[in-house]
Every structure is written in C-alpha cells, then in structure tokens.
C-alpha cells in the first residue's frame, strides 16, 4: 500500500480519475434506461423484460468483483484494470449490434464483468492512497463525480435515443471506456506492489475471503450498507416503467426527472462530508437508515392507497436518495478500514455483496408488471428495514475498539 502526500492539483486529478472509474458502471446503467421502450420495440419484447438486461448487468458486476479482488492483490491495481477496461470496450461494441434480447442480456453481463474491474480498483486505491481517517471524505468526493452519472447519463441517453437510436448509446459508452483507459495508463499511479505470496488457487482465495467476511466490522457495515443500497437498484430498475408507463411521461422528461432526483444523492453525500466534522460515521449511519425506513413506509402507504401524485413520488424518492447519500460513504469507509494487505479482496467482496443484492432487488421489481408503484415501494421498504436491523444486530458483535474514519480531515497537501 502506498499512502502518499499529494499536491492540491494532484489530489484533484486523482479524485477525478478514480471518480470516472467508479462512475463507469453507473453510466452504463443510467444512459440506456430511457431507451427501454425503443429496445423493447426493436427486439419484439415488452418493456418489463428489457429490465432483465439490467439485472444481468448487476449479476455480472457482482460475480466479476470476486474475480478481480484477488487479481488486484496479486498483480497490483493497474494490469487487471487494463484487462477489465478492454473487455468493457469490446462488449460495448457487441451491444451495439445485438439483435435479440438474449444476446443483449449476455453482452450486458460481459460488459459488467469488464466495468467491475474499474469499480473494485478505484475503491481499493482509495484505501491505498489516502489515510484511513480521510476515506469517508474521499468516498463522498467520489460520489460527487459519480453523481454526474444520473444527472447527465439519462438526459444524454434520451436525446441520443430520440435523435439516433439506442445502439448509439453503446457506441458512446465504448468511447468512454477508451478515454478512461487512456487516462488510467497516462495519469493514474500504481498504488500497490504486486504480492507474489498471494495465491490464485481457489482454496487460498476462498480462505482469504472468509477471513475478510469474518471481521465483525466488515460484515456489519458491508451487509447493512449493501442492503440499504439495494433500494437504489430497485429504483433504477423500476423507475422507467413507473414514470414512462404509469405516469405516461416521455423518455426525455424521464431523463430530466432522473437527473433532478440524483441531486438528492449528490447533495447529501457532500452534506455528509460536513457532518463528519462534527459526528462520527458510526453516529450518522443509524440515523440516516432510520430516516430511510420512514420515507419508504410513507411511500408504501401512499402507493397502497393510490395517494401518490407525480410530485409526491418524486419528493419521496428524492428523500430516499438523500438518506442514501449519508449512508453509503460511511458504510464503505467503515467496511474497509480494518484492512491494509488484502484491501483489494475486501473491496471486491464489499462490491460483490452490494451488486449481488442490487441484482436481486432489480430482478424482484422486474418480475412484476402491475402498472403501479407498489412493487418498487415494497422492495425499497423491505431493503431499508432489513438494513437497519442488520446494522443494529451487527454492531453488538464488534467487541474491540472500532476502526473508523472518525471526523475526516483533509489529505496533507504541499
């Protein structure tokens, strides 16, 4: 691990590069959402089935992260990252020419396998390059970069789909992959020396993952954070049908609403950075999770009684994302804080848990075609309540003094 002193310009450039790596997956999700109706029409399927290509992407990210974790620890961060980005670029080209839903589902799975290298490497490099006490702040800054995805991607995707076609969306994603690969090669430092003692045989890898997941601080915050975060995947998967089918909005209008809602996630993540000056991550997380449960309870009651106007559901989803913005940076930092040598494996396992549960939540919403917000409301409420229960029970198992990014401070600059 190479924690280094950084100049202010170098600090900003690292945040931008790591942020674009982290944002590659979300961009791959958000940009093609407005194209669901066009994809369904071209491939001769209903819109709900198109969401299966989103679920396969989540499954690919979940499975792929378990693959890349040991590779990042064994060969350093950059070589596996290069391989993943090249795979992503090739799969994006394949998605452009998909002629059946099944082929799109498979290619999206492969595309996800490539993009998750960027996700795992960026998280591990935060742990490598920055002091533990600053990790929550850095994750919040990364979320600021990642937050441009739901603001820009659906809007761009809607216009691209309207003017050109949904195929062009994947051309743009492929070009993005090429640019990110070049930035990684030219400006991103290698932050971890290859560990030649790290075995890539199945038994040692499994043993290593078990040692990570047996750490009480890891399993408490990784699982609680991932379950909470799965509500976001349910929202992403269910929102096209709700806004464009139930509320009869155009794909362009949906893109703008999606962009507006993302402000809640971005803004609250930056408020979280301010809160960390006055409170610890351990104090912030349970309060934010409790707020999330309350918001989802109101959502499910409103959906059950058909009380939700368009403005009402937008308001509740905005509040849900605000809570999530105060949860995710803290649970991520707390999950990784105990690890140094196997931070890559810990990052991969955390991401796999998050994406696996996200894929499950996405699939649950996709299975129902009720022309209402109820499937989304039930899924989000269930995930929020379960996350809070896991947090409260898991914290009782943390016997030793907790390793924490307590009251984040700035990285030293010269």
Automatic annotation (TrEMBL):
<keyword id="KW-0812">Transmembrane</keyword>
<feature type="transmembrane region" description="Helical">
    <location>
        <begin position="105"/>
        <end position="126"/>
    </location>
</feature>
<feature type="transmembrane region" description="Helical">
    <location>
        <begin position="374"/>
        <end position="393"/>
    </location>
</feature>
<keyword id="KW-0813">Transport</keyword>
<keyword id="KW-1003">Cell membrane</keyword>
<feature type="transmembrane region" description="Helical">
    <location>
        <begin position="166"/>
        <end position="188"/>
    </location>
</feature>
<dbReference type="InterPro" id="IPR036259">
    <property type="entry name" value="MFS_trans_sf"/>
</dbReference>
<feature type="transmembrane region" description="Helical">
    <location>
        <begin position="12"/>
        <end position="29"/>
    </location>
</feature>
<feature type="transmembrane region" description="Helical">
    <location>
        <begin position="307"/>
        <end position="327"/>
    </location>
</feature>
<feature type="transmembrane region" description="Helical">
    <location>
        <begin position="49"/>
        <end position="68"/>
    </location>
</feature>
<keyword id="KW-0472">Membrane</keyword>
<keyword id="KW-1133">Transmembrane helix</keyword>
<feature type="transmembrane region" description="Helical">
    <location>
        <begin position="283"/>
        <end position="301"/>
    </location>
</feature>
<protein>
    <submittedName>
        <fullName>Multidrug effflux MFS transporter</fullName>
    </submittedName>
</protein>
<dbReference type="InterPro" id="IPR004812">
    <property type="entry name" value="Efflux_drug-R_Bcr/CmlA"/>
</dbReference>
<dbReference type="InterPro" id="IPR020846">
    <property type="entry name" value="MFS_dom"/>
</dbReference>
<feature type="transmembrane region" description="Helical">
    <location>
        <begin position="80"/>
        <end position="99"/>
    </location>
</feature>
<feature type="transmembrane region" description="Helical">
    <location>
        <begin position="218"/>
        <end position="236"/>
    </location>
</feature>
<feature type="transmembrane region" description="Helical">
    <location>
        <begin position="138"/>
        <end position="160"/>
    </location>
</feature>
<dbReference type="Pfam" id="PF07690">
    <property type="entry name" value="MFS_1"/>
</dbReference>
<feature type="transmembrane region" description="Helical">
    <location>
        <begin position="256"/>
        <end position="276"/>
    </location>
</feature>
<dbReference type="InterPro" id="IPR011701">
    <property type="entry name" value="MFS"/>
</dbReference>
<comment type="similarity">
    <text>Belongs to the major facilitator superfamily. Bcr/CmlA family.</text>
</comment>
<feature type="domain" description="Major facilitator superfamily (MFS) profile">
    <location>
        <begin position="14"/>
        <end position="399"/>
    </location>
</feature>
<feature type="transmembrane region" description="Helical">
    <location>
        <begin position="348"/>
        <end position="368"/>
    </location>
</feature>
């Amino acid at each position: 691990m190479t924690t280094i002193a950084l100049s202010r310009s170098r600090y900003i450039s690292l945040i931008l590069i790591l942020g674009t790596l982290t944002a590659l997956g979300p961009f791959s999700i958000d940009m093609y959402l407005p194209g669901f109706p066009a994809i369904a029409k071209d491939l001769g399927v209903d819109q709900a089935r198109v969401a299966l290509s989103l679920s396969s992407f989540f499954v690919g990210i979940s499975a792929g992260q378990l693959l890349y974790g040991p590779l990042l620890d064994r060969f350093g961060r950059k070589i596996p990252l290069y391989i993943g980005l090249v795979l992503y670029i090739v799969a994006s080209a394949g998605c452009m020419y998909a002629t059946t839903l099944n082929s799109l589902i498979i290619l999206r799975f492969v595309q996800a396998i490539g993009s998750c290298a960027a996700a795992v490497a960026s998280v591990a490099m935060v742990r490598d390059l920055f002091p533990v006490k600053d990790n929550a702040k850095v994750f919040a800054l990364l979320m600021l970069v990642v937050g441009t995805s739901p603001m820009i991607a659906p809007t761009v995707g809607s216009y691209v789909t309207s003017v050109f076609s949904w195929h062009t969306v994947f051309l743009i994603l492929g070009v993005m992959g090429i640019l990110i690969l070049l930035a990684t090669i030219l400006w991103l430092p290698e932050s971890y020396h290859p560990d030649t003692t790290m075995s890539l045989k199945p038994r040692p890898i499994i043993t290593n993952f078990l040692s990570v997941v047996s750490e009480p601080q890891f399993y408490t915050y990784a699982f609680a954070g991932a379950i909470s975060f799965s509500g976001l995947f349910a929202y992403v998967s269910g929102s096209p049908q709700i806004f464009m089918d139930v509320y009869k909005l155009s794909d362009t209008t949906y893109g703008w609403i999606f962009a507006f809602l993302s402000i809640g996630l971005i803004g609250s993540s930056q408020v979280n950075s301010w809160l960390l000056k006055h409170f610890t991550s351990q104090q912030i997380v349970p309060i934010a999770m409790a707020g999330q449960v309350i918001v989802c309870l109101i959502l499910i009651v409103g959906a059950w009684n058909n009380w939700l106007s368009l403005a009402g559901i937008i308001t509740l989803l905005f509040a849900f994302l605000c809570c999530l913005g105060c949860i995710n940076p803290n649970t991520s930092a707390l999950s990784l804080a105990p690890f140094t040598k196997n931070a890559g494996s810990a990052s991969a396992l955390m991401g796999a848990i998050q994406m696996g549960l996200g894929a499950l939540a996405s699939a649950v919403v996709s299975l129902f075609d009720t022309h209402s917000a109820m499937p989304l409301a039930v899924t989000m409420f269930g995930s929020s309540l379960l996350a809070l229960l896991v947090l409260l029970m898991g914290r009782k198992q943390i016997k030793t003094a907790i390793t924490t990014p307590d009251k984040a401070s700035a990285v030293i600059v010269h």
